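TASK: fixed-backbone design
INPUT:
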């Protein structure tokens, strides 16, 4: 078992990140390059390998 995802992200680093709204864990979507907060209904983009954890950059994933 490896500690990196298919894109080379450190799993431990991704596990340490939490939703800035709910403080819930995030799910990594490799295809969309986003960190998903199911609890808040938001998707935070990853650009150039850097998670953008700003609310004004997040995409709403449910109404």
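OUTPUT:
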């Amino acid at each position: 078992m490896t500690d990196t995802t298919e894109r080379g992200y450190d799993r431990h680093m991704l596990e340490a990140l939490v939703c800035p709204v709910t403080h819930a864990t995030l799910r990594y979507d490799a295809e969309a390059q986003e960190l998903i907060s199911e609890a808040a209904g938001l998707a935070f983009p990853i650009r150039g390998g850097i998670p953008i954890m700003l609310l004004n950059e997040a995409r709403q994933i449910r109404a």
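COMMENT: The longest helix spans residues 11-16.
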